[in-house]
Design a protein that fits this description.
mainly alpha; Growth Hormone, Chain: A; 17 helices; disordered N terminus; disordered C terminus; MFS; MFS_Transporters; cell membrane; MFS_trans_sf; transmembrane transporter activity
Length: 431
């Protein structure tokens, strides 16, 4: 679980491993729980605020807040690695929290839907910078042998908080209304997350220097443009991970916006919708504690492929049934499949990236992954307006299954730390 991988070239006070860095690691786990909670305040109630308080009849317009969130978060992810290497991880983490502070107040006081869309643009920056830094810093701390575990614990904290908060907001909404009571949780998360980041977090760039000193030297410096091309499509493993990440969050964006509307169309009460919206991310969060380290032992590819297919099964079950019990099973399957996929994808990108440009490669991967929120919400909204909510869910389920097939064909297992700086270009790919 931990390893002291100190090398003579590094500062004597810095070493790699979970055991060696557990206080900072645990602090970052807690902070990422607050990051996840910021998204959790929206999972149950915000789509219903649009439909019921602002009387928006178009599904596409209701999910527009997810589109603004996804696009802005994707762009924030894209620059986060660059900023982290230039400014330091801690400064970017603090910036993310400062941008996120106004979000819950804007939702509480929003006089129109445009305010909610603007709040979600700020939330996208908060998530893109703060969540990116917590995962990058954990990877920095533990070194190459425990990346799956580090990512699993990070995503466990974030998505368990999403699930718990989704449940709590559903309960509070059923007791006190959609606003403002459920959103007060976001105020507490934002203040605590910012305070801990400013007062207690330490930067991890020295850990990166230590790992880089013990790693094979990069043949020549690599530009961000080259990293973008490499991560997006030129390296087969990075391409497979990027498209799977995009589709994973595409179906998550669809479920965020469409599921509450789908469930309420059958007359389901908001507190029971909160349960369904909590089960999915809570299952996703808890099981990553196991799937992350399992990927360190078994490899990433098998878990990713199987996870995409389990997600597809959960979506098909949800979209083709009309009873709470089946929806609950569908939510469990969706959570299980996402838990199998999520930490493995980040670990696979880390495996295929040189330490000197790993943060930037992860930022490109996270750009494509979180662009899926916008694509999923927008495409599902258009399909739902034209063909119905069930058709939107089933269409995204089909796409999720196909994405798993792409990973099965394209991705190759790669041992952590074995990245070849020259990489394999697209024309030389072999299945």
């Amino acid at each position: 679980m931990s390893q002291a991988e100190a090398a003579p070239q590094g500062p004597p006070s810095v070493s790699l491993g979970l055991k060696e860095n557990w206080p900072q690691f645990a602090l970052l786990v807690l902070i990422n729980a607050f990051v996840g909670g910021m998204v959790g305040i929206e999972r149950t109630v915000v789509p219903l605020i649009g439909a019921e308080e602002f009387k928006i009849g178009s599904t596409t317009l209701v999910v527009s807040f997810i589109v603004s969130f996804g696009v802005v978060k994707a762009c924030a992810n894209l620059v986060s690695g660059q900023l982290a290497d230039k400014w330091g991880r801690k400064r970017v983490l603090i910036l993310g929290w400062l941008v996120g502070l106004p979000v819950p107040f804007m939702i509480i006081w929003a006089p129109s839907w445009e305010w909610v869309i603007a709040a979600n643009a700020l939330l996208g920056i908060n998530q893109g910078l703060a969540w990116s830094m917590t995962v990058i810093m954990k990877i920095d701390l533990v070194g190459p042998k425990s990346r799956g575990l580090a990512v699993g614990l990070n995503e466990f904290a974030g998505y368990l908080a999403v699930g718990v908060t989704a449940y709590l907001t559903g309960y509070l909404a059923s007791e006190y209304g959609l606003r403002p009571a459920p959103i007060y949780l976001g105020v507490a998360y934002a203040i605590l997350g910012a305070a801990l980041s400013i007062l207690l977090v330490r930067d991890t760039r020295e850990h990166v220097r230590l790992e880089t000193a013990a790693h094979a030297r990069q043949a020549s410096p690599i530009s961000f443009r080259e990293i973008f091309v490499l991560t997006s499509f030129r390296d087969r493993n990075l391409f497979a991970a990027s498209q799977a990440g995009l589709v994973n969050n595409l179906n998550d964006g669809m479920s965020w916006g469409i599921f509450p509307l789908f469930f309420v169309s059958f007359g389901l009460a908001v507190d029971r919708i909160g349960i369904l919206k909590a089960v999915y991310p809570a299952t996703w969060g808890i099981l990553q504690v196991a799937t992350g380290p399992l990927s360190d032992r078994w490899g990433r590819k098998g878990l990713i492929v199987a996870g995409m297919w389990v997600q597809a099964a959960g979506l098909f079950l949800t979209g083709t049934t009309s009873y709470f019990e089946w929806w609950l099973v569908g939510s469990l399957l969706l959570g299980l499949g996402t838990a199998m996929v999520y930490p493995c994808l980040i670990a696979a990108v880390s495996d295929a990236s040189h330490p000197s440009w790993r943060a930037r490669s992860l930022s490109v991967y996270r750009f494509w992954r979180d662009l899926g929120y916008a694509i999923g919400a927008l495409s599902a909204g258009i399909i739902a307006d034209r063909f119905g909510l069930s058709a939107a869910i089933s269409s995204i389920a089909t796409l999720t299954f196909v994405s798993g097939v792409v990973v099965a064909v394209v991705m190759r297992e790669r041992k952590a730390g074995s990245v070849d700086p020259t990489q394999t270009p697209w024309p030389n790919w072999r299945p």
